[in-house]
Amino acid sequence: xxxxxxxxxxxxxxxxxxxxxxxxxxxxxxxxxxxxxxxxxxxxxxxxxxxxxxxxxxxxxxxxxxxxxxxxxxxxxxxxxxxxxxxxxxxxxxxxxxxxxxxxxxxxxxxxxxxxxxxxxxxxxxxxxxxxxxxxxxxxxxxxxxxxxxxxxxxxxxxxxxxxxxxxxxxxxxxxxxxxxxxxxxxxxxxxxxxxxxxxxxxxxxxxxxxxxxxxxxxxxxxxxxxxxxxxxxxxxxxxxxxxxxxxxxxxxxxxxxx
Length: 259
Known about the structure:
Oligomer: single chain
Radius of gyration: 18 Å
Structural class: mainly alpha
Protein backbone atom coordinates (compact mmCIF):
# COMPACT_ATOMS: atom_id res chain seq x y z
CA UNK A 1 0.00 0.00 0.00
CA UNK A 2 2.94 2.32 0.69
CA UNK A 3 4.13 1.82 -2.87
CA UNK A 4 0.61 2.52 -4.19
CA UNK A 5 0.49 5.79 -2.24
CA UNK A 6 3.81 6.81 -3.76
CA UNK A 7 2.45 6.35 -7.27
CA UNK A 8 -0.76 8.22 -6.42
CA UNK A 9 1.34 11.13 -5.18
CA UNK A 10 3.35 11.01 -8.40
CA UNK A 11 0.15 11.44 -10.41
CA UNK A 12 -1.00 14.26 -8.14
CA UNK A 13 2.38 15.91 -8.54
CA UNK A 14 2.28 15.65 -12.32
CA UNK A 15 -1.22 17.13 -12.45
CA UNK A 16 -0.29 19.98 -10.10
CA UNK A 17 2.86 20.68 -12.11
CA UNK A 18 0.79 20.82 -15.29
CA UNK A 19 -1.60 23.39 -13.78
CA UNK A 20 1.27 25.55 -12.50
CA UNK A 21 3.19 25.35 -15.79
CA UNK A 22 0.08 26.17 -17.85
CA UNK A 23 -0.70 29.15 -15.59
CA UNK A 24 2.88 30.41 -15.93
CA UNK A 25 2.82 30.10 -19.73
CA UNK A 26 -0.63 31.72 -19.86
CA UNK A 27 0.69 34.77 -17.99
CA UNK A 28 3.63 35.05 -20.40
CA UNK A 29 1.35 34.75 -23.44
CA UNK A 30 -1.11 37.28 -22.00
CA UNK A 31 1.72 39.75 -21.39
CA UNK A 32 3.15 39.31 -24.89
CA UNK A 33 -0.29 39.56 -26.54
CA UNK A 34 -0.76 43.02 -25.07
CA UNK A 35 1.87 44.35 -27.47
CA UNK A 36 2.09 41.71 -30.20
CA UNK A 37 -0.62 39.86 -32.13
CA UNK A 38 -0.16 36.11 -31.75
CA UNK A 39 -2.07 33.57 -33.82
CA UNK A 40 -3.65 30.52 -32.21
CA UNK A 41 -1.17 28.33 -34.11
CA UNK A 42 1.79 30.06 -32.49
CA UNK A 43 0.09 29.96 -29.07
CA UNK A 44 -0.31 26.19 -29.35
CA UNK A 45 3.38 25.69 -30.12
CA UNK A 46 4.51 28.13 -27.40
CA UNK A 47 2.43 26.26 -24.82
CA UNK A 48 2.76 22.60 -25.76
CA UNK A 49 6.44 22.37 -26.76
CA UNK A 50 7.75 23.69 -23.40
CA UNK A 51 5.21 21.52 -21.55
CA UNK A 52 6.38 18.42 -23.40
CA UNK A 53 10.01 19.29 -22.58
CA UNK A 54 9.16 19.77 -18.89
CA UNK A 55 7.35 16.46 -18.50
CA UNK A 56 9.86 14.56 -20.61
CA UNK A 57 12.56 15.78 -18.23
CA UNK A 58 10.45 14.92 -15.15
CA UNK A 59 9.90 11.41 -16.45
CA UNK A 60 13.55 10.88 -17.35
CA UNK A 61 14.76 12.23 -14.00
CA UNK A 62 12.05 11.26 -11.50
CA UNK A 63 8.98 9.16 -12.42
CA UNK A 64 10.80 6.98 -14.98
CA UNK A 65 7.56 5.53 -16.33
CA UNK A 66 8.07 3.18 -19.28
CA UNK A 67 5.96 4.07 -22.32
CA UNK A 68 4.95 1.50 -24.92
CA UNK A 69 6.20 2.23 -28.42
CA UNK A 70 6.28 -1.17 -30.10
CA UNK A 71 2.83 -2.83 -30.44
CA UNK A 72 2.23 -5.81 -28.17
CA UNK A 73 -0.19 -7.36 -30.67
CA UNK A 74 0.18 -8.59 -34.26
CA UNK A 75 -0.08 -6.15 -37.16
CA UNK A 76 -3.34 -7.78 -38.20
CA UNK A 77 -4.84 -7.21 -34.74
CA UNK A 78 -3.47 -3.67 -34.75
CA UNK A 79 -5.34 -2.91 -37.98
CA UNK A 80 -8.59 -4.03 -36.33
CA UNK A 81 -8.01 -2.16 -33.06
CA UNK A 82 -7.24 1.03 -35.02
CA UNK A 83 -10.82 1.46 -36.28
CA UNK A 84 -11.35 4.80 -34.42
CA UNK A 85 -8.37 6.19 -36.33
CA UNK A 86 -10.03 5.32 -39.64
CA UNK A 87 -13.15 7.18 -38.52
CA UNK A 88 -11.11 10.25 -37.58
CA UNK A 89 -9.31 10.18 -40.95
CA UNK A 90 -12.66 9.92 -42.78
CA UNK A 91 -13.98 12.95 -40.87
CA UNK A 92 -10.82 14.96 -41.63
CA UNK A 93 -10.98 14.10 -45.33
CA UNK A 94 -14.67 15.04 -45.52
CA UNK A 95 -13.93 18.41 -43.89
CA UNK A 96 -11.19 19.09 -46.45
CA UNK A 97 -13.41 18.09 -49.38
CA UNK A 98 -16.59 19.86 -48.27
CA UNK A 99 -15.29 23.07 -46.66
CA UNK A 100 -13.67 25.73 -48.82
CA UNK A 101 -12.30 27.87 -45.98
CA UNK A 102 -9.57 25.71 -44.52
CA UNK A 103 -7.17 26.62 -41.72
CA UNK A 104 -4.16 24.44 -42.40
CA UNK A 105 -1.66 25.99 -39.99
CA UNK A 106 -4.02 25.82 -37.03
CA UNK A 107 -5.09 22.26 -37.87
CA UNK A 108 -1.52 21.01 -38.22
CA UNK A 109 -0.42 22.79 -35.04
CA UNK A 110 -3.35 21.44 -32.99
CA UNK A 111 -2.94 17.95 -34.40
CA UNK A 112 0.78 17.66 -33.79
CA UNK A 113 1.06 19.39 -30.43
CA UNK A 114 -2.05 18.06 -28.69
CA UNK A 115 -1.68 14.62 -30.17
CA UNK A 116 1.90 14.19 -29.00
CA UNK A 117 2.05 16.09 -25.69
CA UNK A 118 -1.35 15.21 -24.21
CA UNK A 119 -0.99 11.52 -25.04
CA UNK A 120 2.55 11.43 -23.68
CA UNK A 121 1.35 12.90 -20.38
CA UNK A 122 -2.13 11.46 -19.82
CA UNK A 123 -1.84 8.02 -21.41
CA UNK A 124 1.92 7.48 -21.39
CA UNK A 125 2.70 8.77 -17.89
CA UNK A 126 -0.47 9.17 -15.81
CA UNK A 127 -2.30 6.05 -17.04
CA UNK A 128 0.90 4.01 -16.74
CA UNK A 129 1.64 5.20 -13.20
CA UNK A 130 -1.96 4.56 -12.11
CA UNK A 131 -1.68 1.00 -13.40
CA UNK A 132 1.29 0.59 -11.05
CA UNK A 133 -0.65 2.16 -8.18
CA UNK A 134 -3.44 -0.41 -8.53
CA UNK A 135 -1.29 -3.44 -9.39
CA UNK A 136 -2.25 -5.12 -6.08
CA UNK A 137 -5.88 -5.35 -7.27
CA UNK A 138 -7.47 -7.73 -9.75
CA UNK A 139 -6.52 -6.92 -13.33
CA UNK A 140 -10.07 -5.80 -14.14
CA UNK A 141 -10.22 -3.33 -11.26
CA UNK A 142 -6.63 -2.22 -11.86
CA UNK A 143 -7.24 -1.35 -15.51
CA UNK A 144 -10.65 0.24 -15.06
CA UNK A 145 -9.59 2.45 -12.16
CA UNK A 146 -6.52 3.62 -14.08
CA UNK A 147 -8.53 4.28 -17.24
CA UNK A 148 -11.37 6.15 -15.51
CA UNK A 149 -9.17 8.29 -13.24
CA UNK A 150 -6.77 9.28 -16.03
CA UNK A 151 -9.72 10.15 -18.29
CA UNK A 152 -11.41 12.25 -15.57
CA UNK A 153 -8.13 14.13 -15.01
CA UNK A 154 -7.93 14.67 -18.77
CA UNK A 155 -11.42 16.17 -18.64
CA UNK A 156 -10.63 18.34 -15.61
CA UNK A 157 -7.57 19.93 -17.20
CA UNK A 158 -9.84 21.27 -19.96
CA UNK A 159 -11.59 23.39 -17.32
CA UNK A 160 -8.84 26.00 -17.87
CA UNK A 161 -10.54 26.81 -21.18
CA UNK A 162 -13.16 28.72 -19.17
CA UNK A 163 -10.68 31.61 -19.20
CA UNK A 164 -11.22 32.09 -22.94
CA UNK A 165 -14.70 30.73 -23.66
CA UNK A 166 -18.19 30.52 -22.04
CA UNK A 167 -18.59 28.24 -19.01
CA UNK A 168 -21.30 26.16 -20.73
CA UNK A 169 -19.01 25.40 -23.66
CA UNK A 170 -16.20 24.53 -21.27
CA UNK A 171 -18.38 22.12 -19.26
CA UNK A 172 -19.41 20.37 -22.48
CA UNK A 173 -15.78 20.26 -23.61
CA UNK A 174 -14.80 18.66 -20.29
CA UNK A 175 -17.45 15.95 -20.71
CA UNK A 176 -16.23 15.34 -24.25
CA UNK A 177 -12.63 15.12 -23.02
CA UNK A 178 -13.57 12.45 -20.47
CA UNK A 179 -15.15 10.08 -22.99
CA UNK A 180 -12.45 10.94 -25.52
CA UNK A 181 -9.88 9.97 -22.89
CA UNK A 182 -11.64 6.63 -22.40
CA UNK A 183 -11.26 5.81 -26.09
CA UNK A 184 -7.61 6.92 -26.13
CA UNK A 185 -6.87 4.76 -23.07
CA UNK A 186 -8.44 1.72 -24.70
CA UNK A 187 -6.40 2.28 -27.87
CA UNK A 188 -3.19 2.47 -25.84
CA UNK A 189 -3.86 -0.59 -23.71
CA UNK A 190 -5.21 -2.78 -26.50
CA UNK A 191 -2.40 -1.92 -28.93
CA UNK A 192 0.49 -1.54 -26.48
CA UNK A 193 1.83 1.46 -28.40
CA UNK A 194 1.37 5.16 -27.55
CA UNK A 195 1.68 5.92 -31.28
CA UNK A 196 -1.92 4.82 -31.96
CA UNK A 197 -3.64 7.20 -29.49
CA UNK A 198 -1.25 9.95 -30.60
CA UNK A 199 -2.32 9.47 -34.21
CA UNK A 200 -6.02 9.27 -33.36
CA UNK A 201 -5.89 12.34 -31.11
CA UNK A 202 -3.84 14.28 -33.63
CA UNK A 203 -6.09 13.51 -36.59
CA UNK A 204 -9.20 14.29 -34.52
CA UNK A 205 -7.91 17.72 -33.46
CA UNK A 206 -6.74 18.33 -37.03
CA UNK A 207 -10.27 17.68 -38.33
CA UNK A 208 -11.68 20.18 -35.80
CA UNK A 209 -9.14 22.91 -36.53
CA UNK A 210 -9.17 22.58 -40.32
CA UNK A 211 -12.80 23.68 -40.63
CA UNK A 212 -13.50 25.77 -37.51
CA UNK A 213 -10.38 27.90 -37.60
CA UNK A 214 -10.38 28.03 -33.80
CA UNK A 215 -9.60 25.76 -30.87
CA UNK A 216 -12.14 27.62 -28.71
CA UNK A 217 -15.91 27.24 -28.53
CA UNK A 218 -17.88 30.44 -29.11
CA UNK A 219 -21.41 29.28 -29.92
CA UNK A 220 -24.10 29.04 -27.24
CA UNK A 221 -24.56 25.53 -25.92
CA UNK A 222 -27.92 24.07 -26.92
CA UNK A 223 -29.98 21.36 -25.26
CA UNK A 224 -29.47 19.19 -28.34
CA UNK A 225 -25.67 19.41 -27.92
CA UNK A 226 -25.92 18.45 -24.26
CA UNK A 227 -28.14 15.46 -25.02
CA UNK A 228 -25.86 14.43 -27.91
CA UNK A 229 -22.76 14.49 -25.71
CA UNK A 230 -24.45 12.56 -22.90
CA UNK A 231 -25.64 9.91 -25.37
CA UNK A 232 -22.16 9.73 -26.93
CA UNK A 233 -20.67 9.37 -23.45
CA UNK A 234 -22.93 6.40 -22.71
CA UNK A 235 -22.17 4.82 -26.10
CA UNK A 236 -18.42 5.22 -25.51
CA UNK A 237 -18.78 3.61 -22.07
CA UNK A 238 -20.45 0.61 -23.68
CA UNK A 239 -17.76 0.38 -26.36
CA UNK A 240 -15.00 0.60 -23.75
CA UNK A 241 -16.74 -2.02 -21.60
CA UNK A 242 -16.80 -4.32 -24.62
CA UNK A 243 -13.17 -3.61 -25.57
CA UNK A 244 -12.00 -4.14 -21.98
CA UNK A 245 -14.16 -7.16 -21.17
CA UNK A 246 -12.51 -9.96 -19.22
CA UNK A 247 -11.53 -11.95 -22.31
CA UNK A 248 -9.71 -8.94 -23.80
CA UNK A 249 -8.24 -7.86 -20.46
CA UNK A 250 -6.48 -11.21 -20.20
CA UNK A 251 -4.79 -10.60 -23.54
CA UNK A 252 -3.51 -7.12 -22.63
CA UNK A 253 0.21 -7.22 -21.89
CA UNK A 254 1.04 -4.75 -19.10
CA UNK A 255 4.55 -6.08 -18.42
CA UNK A 256 6.44 -3.14 -19.89
CA UNK A 257 4.16 -0.48 -18.38
CA UNK A 258 4.52 -2.02 -14.91
CA UNK A 259 8.31 -2.37 -15.10
